[in-house]
Design brief:
Blueprint: H1 3-10, H2 14-37, H3 48-60, H4 64-77, H5 82-97, H6 101-114, H7 121-133, H8 144-159, H9 164-193, H10 197-210, H11 217-231, H12 234-248, H13 252-262, H14 275-285
Helix pairs in contact: 1-2, 3-4, 3-5, 4-5, 5-6, 5-7, 6-7, 7-8, 7-9, 8-9, 9-10, 10-11, 11-12, 11-13, 12-13, 12-14
Pfam family, one: YfiO
Keywords: Cell outer membrane, Lipoprotein, Membrane, Signal
Function: Part of the outer membrane protein assembly complex, which is involved in assembly and insertion of beta-barrel proteins into the outer membrane.
């Protein structure tokens, strides 16, 4: 049946069927062409620009693996050309879109190594950081990836401070940093719920000392009050509450800590000679936030 006959036979639905059929045929042709062109030697007669165009075509059609392949072939066929440089950054991008983070990272790293002063070097470093950042999962997982993300994001900020990617890197750095603090809090809460107060204190202390700019600091201070009170260490508990009151008095965490102390006839105050008193003095002098 001809296309006209198909339209007539299907009534108002004909145009939609024809469009769908046409898209399917085009996709099949594109897929077949891509398979042929991926054979050894098939691209040898193509110019660098033509291979780049093939990569872009596959990228636009969301054939990300094929796109990455063609972009990578430019580097193989024309290793010293400007097209090879463009193909390498596009290969890193295609792999990242495909969530093939290992290969994206590899391509981005090669770009940074070979072209550190190029205009796209900042973006390559940013992609390298994203290859770790986008793998950060829930708080309960291993945090090695988070540490690597922080390292690479810091490199974007330090090496390319004037680039458009530095601002985004700062935002993601803060979120990843918050993520690490969340991990410490999760473990600390676990120990606290099981009465292992010493282990809980060590986790909450890490948050207060090393992650004080994160959103978890108020809760960490309140949990320290709970843990120290449970151990009968009232000086430490009062000192933690004093810091909480100085910086986060409007939070429900301070209200809880205040109620816990006053219920025992105590008040928030830097007391004794302990690590929290030292922090409180820094807070009062404005050296610690």
């Amino acid at each position: 049946m001809t296309m006209a006959g198909l339209i007539k036979a299907t009534g108002g639905r004909g145009m939609f069927l024809v469009a769908a059929l046409s898209a399917t045929l085009l996709a099949a042709c594109s897929s077949n062409e891509s398979s042929v062109l991926r054979q050894p030697g098939a691209l040898d007669a193509y110019s660098a620009e033509q291979v780049f165009d093939l990569g872009e075509q596959q990228l636009n059609e969301n054939r990300l693996d094929d796109a990455a392949f063609f972009f990578g072939e430019i580097e193989r066929l024309y290793p010293y050309s400007s097209w090879a440089r463009r193909g390498l950054i596009m290969q890193a991008f295609a792999y990242h879109r495909a969530r093939d983070y290992e290969n994206s990272r590899s391509a981005a790293q090669r770009y940074v190594d070979f072209y550190p002063t190029d205009e796209d070097a900042a973006y390559a470093q940013y992609l390298l950081a994203l290859s770790y950042y986008d793998q950060i999962d829930d708080i309960g997982r291993d945090q090695g990836v988070t540490f690597r993300a922080l390292q690479e994001l810091r490199r974007v900020i330090e090496l390319y401070p004037d680039s458009e990617y530095a601002t985004a890197a700062v935002q993601k750095f803060d979120l990843a940093f918050d993520h690490l603090a969340g991990k410490e809090m999760e473990v600390g809460r676990y120990y606290l719920s099981r009465g292992n107060f010493t282990a809980a204190i060590s986790r909450f202390r890490v948050v207060v000392e090393d992650f004080q700019t994160t959103t978890y600091t108020p809760e960490a201070l309140m949990r320290l009050v709970e843990a120290y009170m449970a151990l009968g260490l009232t000086d430490e508990a009062r000192s933690a509450a004093a810091i909480l009151g100085h910086n986060y008095q409007s939070t429900p965490f301070y209200a809880d800590a205040y109620a816990l102390l006053t219920g025992r006839g105590l008040s928030p105050e830097a007391s004794g000679d302990n690590w929290l008193v030292a922090i409180y003095r820094q807070v009062v002098r404005g050296e610690w936030m």
